[in-house]
Fold:
Amino acid sequence: MADLSTSQIRNVAFVAHSGAGKTSLADALFFTSGGTNRQGKVDDQTSLSDYEPEEQRRGSSIQLAVLPCRWKDYKINVIDTPGYADFRGDMLSGLRVADAVLIVVSAAAGIEIGAQQAWNYTEDLGIPTAIVVNKLDRENSSFEQTCDEIIESWGRHCVPVHSVDGDGESFGSVLTGELSESTIETVAESDDELMMKYLDDEALSDDEVNAGIKSGMASRSIIPIFAASALNNIGTDELLDAITTIFPSPDEVEAPSVPEGAQANLIFKTSADPFVGKLSYFRVYGATLDSNAQLWNANRGENERVGQVYLAAGKETSGVDAVIRGDIGVISRLNHTKTFDTLCDKATELKLGGVDLPSPVFALAVSPRGQSDLDKMADSLSRIIEEDPTLELERNTDTSETVLHGLGDIHVDLAIERIARKFEVNLDTALPNIAYRETVGGQTSVSYKHKKQSGGHGQYGHVVLDISPGETGKGITFDSKVVGGNVPKDYIPAVEKGVRNAANNGVVAGFPVVDVAVMLTDGSSHSVDSSGMAFEIAASMGFRQAVREARPTLLEPVMKLRILTPEDCAGDVMSDLSTRRAQIGGMDSKGNGVTEIIAEAPASTMQRYAADLRSLTNARGDFTAIMDHYEPLPAQEANKVIASRQSSEEE
Ligand SMILES: Nc1nc2c(ncn2[C@@H]2O[C@H](COP(=O)(O)OP(=O)(O)O)[C@@H](O)[C@H]2O)c(=O)[nH]1
Ligand SMILES: [Mg+2]
Structure:
């Protein structure tokens, strides 16, 4: 694209609550700018941005997509991101490579929690931001009222720069250049020279106003508000114009420092395509990236040979000679490169850096359905994780399960669906087993003799073990105070091994025994029949008997929770928590009608919380849960667990 320079590029991430109309707006802008001759529609499954089969079936985005809109002398890369919390990873990737953000607010719904969260992210990142009020064709919608709500929630620096002709069903067009007095005043405040003019009652020209808005937007002292109906394609010309005149180009934002002429390309998305292989989406921060370049992956310490480079429009890619600084492109079949890696020159190595991804809140144990699934399971899981770094794979040695963690039930379910579609691997899923542990509540001393002396070479091992509750988190501690060689020194390691083996296999319900102090106090040996094996068996059996006698208890994993809920749902969320044996640590108003609840709750009661919180709060709630510590399980609950373990062993 030789006709394009970096100053003519705009990289804009669309973020919002799910359903506000980001994807519809992306389709409308792409159509308006001539990228396609038929406007894609989410509802007809023809959106060019929601092109994955799972997105079309759901009518909602699950991943980011780039639609490049050529408008006049410019190229606007619209980065459409998913609004749903389960797919926040791709929203963060989109923000990472955007120079500005457009928050889409539905006039029908007002500021929803997803929009609030998006706003918070833009504030944290300090990224230039604008707002578009969408769905203005909807009955009872009002541009003015939605603007008032925005200004009240997010501040007086949010200023309408468009006005509308007709509200609701009579919404006909978007008007530009007719700014209200208060908007002009805010714009004038952004620039000393404009302020002088304004105070002298001199009229500001359109160019001056635009320049004022542009510099205000760059410093976030102005957040322009636009008006649109994506579905009816109203306000899209005006929005494209505004993006080219007001939004910053890659040259006008704080850029990472890259040596003159050096390569600096950040991979921000990876897609595992079953036909063309792996696709890596990148943004150029340094010199032009040519097809067939030889690059260096700074994160992996590996050479990467780039073949053809492509530009992407949704799922369509077209080969080009080069991608210039500031632009977004795609490379296929890289060997070593993962999302958030930097491809650069070896001599001027640098890492552009990724994003802090949210931690998983939901998990399913996965298992292969048939033999061919078994063979391909590991490979397909690693490919899907390569595509989506917010998925995590865990091999749980306590429960012997393969566990897939994600940001919600829908996230993990769809990952399993994508594995089936893309790699033809069918996986069965179940809620993971809880990794309980066993410990003792009291102390005891046990003498155990393992003896077989019927003819020939016999077996003889005899140990006296004291056990007592040990320090939390220390596992099994083993010590010996045997005197006089009653247990010969050479056999003591075998005793310890026997104890540890027994502890690993569990005593009352098959879970590992932890936090027990074991002391070998005495024993005896036989000059011919004793052996390491005999002492190991004696120690194992003795330890098992001792645990059974020392008030065995189960420990359960407890999670630390941070829950965000709309104020009006806080009561329901609290009473629901009380049914989960949760301990409330605090409850706090975070402003904007959002309440934060800090709590701890057993992992066993939280396995479906992602879905439950969603229905409790109408998808407006959000939470994080991290494994914190183990706590004794109440006797009644423990009996249930032990009974279910015994019945599943009998099966
Ligand atoms: N009436 C009306 N509906 C819209 C408009 N924009 C989007 N929608 C509808 O809102 C729903 C969600 O739109 P979508 O673009 O998928 O929202 P996203 O989740 O923010 O990407 C779809 O049914 C759209 O047809 C609009 O301007 N007017
Ligand atoms: Mg969408």
Observations:
- The longest helix spans residues 532-549.
- The pocket of magnesium ion (ligand 2) is lined by residues 22-23, 50, 60-61, 82 (CB under 6 Å).
- The chain has a mean pLDDT of 93.
